[in-house]
Structures are given as C-alpha cells and as structure tokens.
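Human: Here is a favour to ask of a fellow structure person. Comparing notes only helps if you start from a blank page. Give me a protein, with the fold worked out from its sequence. Please set it down just below, with no commentary around it:

Assistant:
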Amino acid sequence: MKTCIVVGRHKFLPDQERDVKEKLGCGELVYVKQVNDINKDILGLAKEKGAAAIVVQALPLPLMAQLLSQRGRPPVYFLKMEARGLVESKEEAEEWQRAKPGSRIYLPPPPTGGGYRLMEYVGPFLEKRVVIEEEPVDP
C-alpha cells in the first residue's frame, strides 16, 4: 500500500474510501485541509512523505490548474461528485440518500432559500490538465 496526500476537509463517503484503498492503492493517508501555497502545502508534503499520489476531494479550479501544471508531481486523482438535482424537503433528500448511502449526500438549502442539493459520488478520475483562458477587462 502506498502513501497518498488527500486534499480536502470532508470525511470520505464509504464508496470514496473503498475506491481510495482498492482502486488507487492508498494505505497511509496524509490530509491537507487548508491550501494556501501549492508548492508548500501539497507538493512539499508529497515529496517529504514520498507520496505516490495526490487525491483531491475539493480544490478551487485555479489551484487545481496550478497543481496540474507542476512538473515532477505525483499523479493527481479527483474524487468526482456530480449534482443530481434539487428537492424541496429534507424527507425527500433523506429518502434519495438512503437508496445509495455509500455514494450519496445532500446539502441543506442556502440561507437565501432554495431546495436541498443532491450530490452523488461517481468515482475517482485521473486528472491530466485544466485550462483556464483569461482575458483582462479594461476599466
């Protein structure tokens, strides 16, 4: 089993934990819950621990692009979650989650209102690149 760096603050869903261990072969997990500097917080730690992979639960897109652009880094895997819709009541959200408790979660409505957001884990993906095209905006 290999050492893997896990970037994210959330507890693994049962299906995520299984995939990290079985599909990615991670035994020892070293968690990074806050990223301020890609080189120090993720890559430096990966080098220090001899990590064979970096597993990302959640990372802002610009930081993911920066991470993937680094040479000599271990492979980066993303534990992909997909939005499955909104429901109005907590009861509906709980019923939906019960159908696949190992891979489904729901998020409460925001303070401004709205429904319960349904999210489903779909698997680990090897991330190869992220491209962000920017254009300056003149004042």
Observations:
- Residues 2-80+122-127 form a domain with the Rossmann fold fold (CATH 3.40.50).
- The chain has a mean pLDDT of 93.
- DSSP finds four helices and six strands in the chain.
